[in-house]
Design brief:
The protein is an all-alpha fold. The chain folds into two domains: about 280 residues, no CATH class; about 80 residues, Arc Repressor Mutant, subunit A, CATH 1.10.10. About 5% of the residues have low confidence.
């Protein structure tokens, strides 16, 4: 019969395999991050190109398209390597593969979108929505990687990374909305509310990024914030909002707004790159540490096997002529030191697994909050026929009116979902 230690060694080997699969997910997250950044840049210049009356943004747009296509090819190559028949599948199974399928479907629509933009066959607002859907599919893939991560330290970094990327996407949407308002010379009440929502949403994401970030990533983040054009950006934000009171907007500020927002986005991307490298380093560190622990346990197992081979046959319990219990020989047949080592190893593994479970539960609680809000938004969209932005606005306004957290309002709505009338 196999010993308990043999199964403990097998568990360590499984853990290393899980960490190696997690490292594949981190490689994918790093590549997706770069693609998202380039797509955001392509989206911005495409909007400028469609909104302009001349071709002054055409060369810049074409340059950005070429850079995005190179990053897209890299992501697709990684995804091909994760196919079920490729032999290097990360954890996550059906959920991860479903997200990958959605990403590939979204990316398949890029050539047609680019062709329509180049021919000016779609409006800027439509192009922005289509680009945004592609970015959303990629961000959902990062979220899935965070949700299925099996190591608490890596999971925390993935949650931090997802929130940084999501916050940057909200900042990119703010850039587009503000540029459109300045170019039009005015902003309506709905536009001002949308801008306010985007500002609040990105700030929430950046707070969550800081909550789960490492000391190293936070030091870099604060250093980057010190050189961001936040003061000028805030001044431009106030100018946008003040136009609601009747004053118009200087359309010449559209370029200034776009440039300052782009400068901020590029600096946020530096934080993303730094955090992505931290993810890879943490995976490598955890794999190396677990291999050392595996070596120690394999050494102990080898000692156990050798000791068991050398053990003499031990008779049953009883007393010899001197009255000494022979069963005492069988009580610790491996010797007290080896027996103590095995017991200590089993207890340490049990405590570590419990700690991992507790830490993962704490990290995933943050991910669950987003799931509740997304499901509640979907419920409102289905039963009230509103768009995603309006559904979020309804949830947020309800939370503000009731003085409750957004996630609590979302949970309450989902609890009452059975009472809602069927969709007509």
């Amino acid at each position: 019969m196999k010993s308990a230690l043999a199964f403990l060694v097998a568990a360590r080997r499984c853990e290393i395999r899980d960490l190696e699969q997690l490292a594949l997910s981190c490689d994918l997250v790093q590549a997706v991050n770069e693609l998202v950044h380039l797509l955001q840049r392509e989206r911005g210049t495409s909007n400028l190109y469609l909104a302009s009356v001349d071709a002054r943004f055409d060369a810049q747009r074409a340059q950005h398209v070429a850079a995005t296509q190179a990053a897209e090819a890299g992501v697709c190559a990684l995804l091909d390597g994760l196919a079920p028949d490729a032999g290097a599948t990360p954890g996550g199974g059906a959920r991860l593969f479903t997200r990958i399928a959605m990403v590939l479907h979204a990316l398949n629509g890029l050539p047609d979108l680019r062709a329509q933009v180049a021919a000016r066959q779609c409006r800027a607002a439509e192009a922005m929505q289509r680009y945004t859907r592609i970015v959303s599919a990629l961000l959902a893939l990062v979220f899935e990687a965070a949700d299925i991560a099996v190591d608490p330290a890596v999971s925390r970094l993935l949650v931090s990374m997802f929130n940084l990327m999501q916050g940057k996407e909200f900042a990119g949407l703010e850039r587009a909305a503000g540029a459109g308002a300045f170019a039009a010379g005015r902003v309506g009440a709905d536009g001002a509310q949308a801008l306010s929502d985007l500002i609040e949403a990105q700030e929430q994401c950046f707070r969550r990024f800081e909550e789960f970030g490492t000391d190293d990533s936070l030091r870099q983040w604060h250093a980057l914030q010190a050189v961001m054009p936040l003061t000028e950006l805030e001044r431009l934000r106030r100018r946008l909002m003040s136009s609601l009171s009747g004053g118009g907007l200087d359309s010449a500020l559209a370029d200034t707004w776009f440039d300052r927002c782009s400068q901020r986005l590029d600096l946020i991307h530096q934080a993303e790159v730094h955090l992505a490298q931290g993810l890879k380093d943490e995976c490598a560190r955890r794999i190396a540490a677990t291999r050392v622990e595996l070596g120690d346990q394999e050494g102990l197992l080898a000692t156990l096997s050798a000791t068991a081979t050398d053990l003499p046959d031990v008779p049953g319990t009883g007393s010899d002529a001197s009255g000494k219990a022979v069963g005492a020989v069988a009580a610790e047949p491996l010797g007290p030191r080896l027996t103590r080592s095995i017991v200590d190893t089993l207890q340490a593994q049990s405590r570590r697994l419990q700690q991992v479970s507790d830490e993962l539960a704490a990290v995933r609680a943050a991910l669950d909050e987003r799931k509740f809000v997304e499901r509640a938004k979907g419920l409102l969209m289905a039963h009230h026929g509103v768009g995603e932005d309006e559904a979020y606005r309804l949830l947020r306004q309800t939370a503000m009116n009731q003085g409750r957290r957004l996630v609590d309002v979302a949970r309450a709505l989902l609890d009452m979902s059975d009472l809602l009338p069927p969709k007509a």
